[in-house]
Fold this protein.
Amino acid sequence: MPTLGALLAAGHDVALVVTRPDRRRGRGGALVPSPVKAVALTQGITVTEDVDDVMDAGVDLAVVVAFGQLVKAHVLERVPMVNVHFSLLPRWRGAAPVERAILAGDTETGVCLMAVEAGLDTGPVYSCQRVDIGPEETADELRGRLAAIGARLLVEELYRGLSRPTPQEGEATYAAKLEPHELRLDWSRPAEELHRVVRLGRAWTTFRGRRLRVLRARVTEEGGSPGVLDGPVVGTGDGRGLALEEVQAEGRGAAPATDWLRGARTAPSERLGT
């Protein structure tokens, strides 16, 4: 959404928005549009779910942001496209560059403007901007910063006129979509690795056989045996602890970890992950 807003604010004529289908949300199952569709409709911009419609839209350039699928060659032959990609290419090509950067312990990422090719994020690059990753920064927070930076970078490059892009250099790494098992907290792992999983926003463990989501936590220098609760601190595999700050028990809303502990009435040496 920041990209569309930035393009409109800069005076660009946006003829068409391509986005995912509406999704059902909430208890009533009402159909809810994507954020970019919601903005486009308020501006009277035509919206479609079929990328092939770009070919007949009469546009000079298409902008791709977190589209989630490859654009086929026959479309690219008709309409040049620039991708606002949330990594320092060729590191973290693919579907989940923000999450993979955090999981890998990267301290830096960035935004690249890339000419779209039929391959997976293989196109030459117009420009990049480096961005530090905060040690406590969540995936949502980082993605929000990168979206704002990418929107600004795109508008600046369009104002100057896109120059000839340069081929990517360096070893390529791939950011595969996260699988559910990767978000389960394995308490035998080091505390810092577990903290990175929590920062992704969907980390989970089990307690008394039911799922417990860990929404916020921090690393502490002291912890007990892996998985053992000592108040809000959970022991990990490297002797340090992960202090739970906000959790969500199955069937309940998010709550401070201290409130959850009072309600759960945990026994001495009780474990998570069981």
In short: The chain is about 25% helix and 25% strand.
